Amino acid sequence: MTVEGSVDEGEGVDLARLLVRLDPDQRAAVTAPPGPVVVIAGAGSGKTRVLTNRIAYRIATKSAEPSHTVAFTFTRQAAAELQRRLAREGVERSVVAGTFHSVAYRILRRRWEDRGRHEPPTLSTNRIEVLTEQLRGDRRLAAVTATEIEWARARLIGPKDYPRAATSAGRRPGADVEQVAKLFADFEAYKRKRRILDFDDLLSECTAEIRRPGVADAISWWHRHLHVDEFQDINPLQYEFLEALRNGGDDLFIVGDPAQAIYGWNGSDSGLLDAVRNGPLRPITIELTTNYRSTPEVVDAGDRVLASNRVGGVHRADRPSGRQIITVSCRDEAEESRRLVVLANELRPPGARWSSVAVLGRTHEILRQAAVAFAAAGIPTRTVTRRGIAGAAGNDPLRPARSAGDSQDLHAWAIDLAWPGSGPEGSDGSGDDGPGRGETDPDDGLSLAGDPLDPVRRAIDTVRAFEEAGGGDGRAFAAWMDLNNVESAVEGDAVELVTMHAAKGREWSTVIVAGIDSVGMPAPIASRSAARAEEARLLYVALTRAADRLAITWAEKRGGKKAGRSPLLPDLALREPDASDVPVLLPERPRPAAAAAPTADPGAAVMARLRNWRAAAARAAGVPAAFLLDDRSLDRIVATMPATQDDLAAIDGIGPLLARRFAGRILPLLSEPGGSRPAAQ
Hints:
Blueprint: H1 15-20, H2 24-31, E1 37-41, H3 47-60, E2 69-72, H4 76-88, E3 96-98, H5 100-114, E4 122-123, H6 127-134, H7 139-154, H8 162-168, H9 177-194, E5 196-197, H10 199-210, H11 216-222, E6 225-228, H12 236-246, E7 252-256, H13 271-277, E8 284-288, E9 290-291, H14 296-308, E10 316-317, E11 326-332, H15 333-347, E12 357-361, H16 364-376, E13 381-383, H17 407-418, H18 455-468, H19 474-483, E14 495-499, H20 500-503, E15 508-514, H21 529-543, E16 546-558, E17 561-562, H22 602-621, H23 625-628, H24 631-640, H25 645-649, H26 655-671
Parallel strand pairs: 1-7, 1-8, 2-3, 2-6, 4-5, 6-7, 9-10, 11-16, 12-14, 12-15, 13-14, 15-16
Antiparallel strand pairs: 16-17
Helix pairs in contact: 2-3, 3-4, 5-10, 6-7, 8-9, 10-12, 14-21, 15-16, 17-18, 22-24, 22-26
InterPro entries: DExx_box_DNA_helicase_dom_sf (IPR013986), DNA_helicase_UvrD-like_C (IPR014017), DNA_helicase_UvrD/REP (IPR000212), HRDC-like_sf (IPR010997), HRDC_dom (IPR002121), HRDC_dom_sf (IPR044876), P-loop_NTPase (IPR027417), UvrD-like_ATP-bd (IPR014016)
Region (Disordered): 418-453
EC number: 5.6.2.4
């Protein structure tokens, strides 16, 4: 498994197997004749399968050579997944799959070597740090400027044109546009003087290199079968690079969905998809409208969001009808955070992992508040970020490799890491949640962990990918790592807290979309119609991450401001949660004394009192009963019959905070007639 560089053609591609699992539209896309093809792939429509099978089909039918085939993705994870799927179809080792930046870097390194450039420019992977140095420590202004430079470069806008373009686009950078333009110009001069390239320079430099006299034909010949995933997210800088690489050729296969274009704020231009679709290439266009991921209820909700905001898109669910969507209106953000915990606890099916549940929020603040509430309830969470390969605890198994002297040192480190007892802190390379010892790969002698998300295994895979991309010393490796946008390793079982943007391309069985109120969605900056439409598409993306169960929450007041249901959320004929979703247990109605049956089980009487108390307390607090104490906690109380506050705190799922709050109410219930707790000593 590698990112960029990679897979030898396999003679084991089974054409019948490639095609038998496809619906008619997917098959049409996979088997389209060589030439320009545009696939409009809705959420859950199997686009990755189509892209994988298209590449495998072309190679199997000898209409494309694997060593001349390139697949552009927007993350390293997407590239790795594509290569895993290609390998399963019998395609191995020479298809190049990677991000635009990593492919550009690969081409540039080869060109520098061909030209005998032994000291290539330094690659800077942190624009903010360079700007902070220029601004003598003003990190806030550096961050503002870095964001604006990224937007401008993506749109092919230089310092001179930035003020007009930013004003026209309605940008609000948090600094004077003329000041940003000057800092932009100073930054470009700083890089030239010190021979520094940043990420965006890779694309512009590579584009210029391809266009050098006598170079374009050779480079485009080596990269002549082009495939692009998530084309709606492409920006003008990436498009210019792609066009230079295409060099007038027409062997282009692109997959995209206008309804999932959510990165306009960062420079992406979904109009480029229309430009290709309706341009001189005159491509074959195929639409995939069947959603295989989600229930009809989820698909319908997503389509209604698009329709009510005039974004378009009609999709069909392949699955049978499922659960109705739940909506929850909360008094404020504090109550919303508590409700998220209850929903996660009750919507998760018995025996399901916490990681099958995700809470999606428009902002990091919503997720931060959710994390606090989940922690108070003792439910593990994981906030998904893209800060490198380090695990949740900050353990970075790649740290020693970053200081390696050369490629041989890196390779030796990777081999050492794989053998039992030689990894960080004695790790044997197998993840805690993996199926045990991994199998030895006969091609490289590395014992790999069974879990592909294990940090050690990912470290080894990453070094192998770097070596296949040309290798180098630890410094080059660190830069190459940053190019590939490696996501944090996922460890343990936990509810995932994810921003809506970061959720794109992922799915969960249960999804709770939080903060869908007029204060948080659309975002305050989305005052223009185009920005508002993008917010609607973002909401569509969030809703369609759900496979089986979907809940939506909002606050009537947020941050002290009046809020209420977001105008982006139409009337979906949804419902508030009922007893089948979040049970709120009412007190049992007392029976007449004459009809009361004798209590055979003293524990049953205790449980009845606990349930009655919980229901009354929950009503008084305005929260579901399960939020105070879930049924498992009540069962443990009855089973252990705690005598003191400390005993209560020791019960799994309660802890000292809940014990301190409820001991005065719970302990007397255990001592009433019918209880079986021994007297406190």
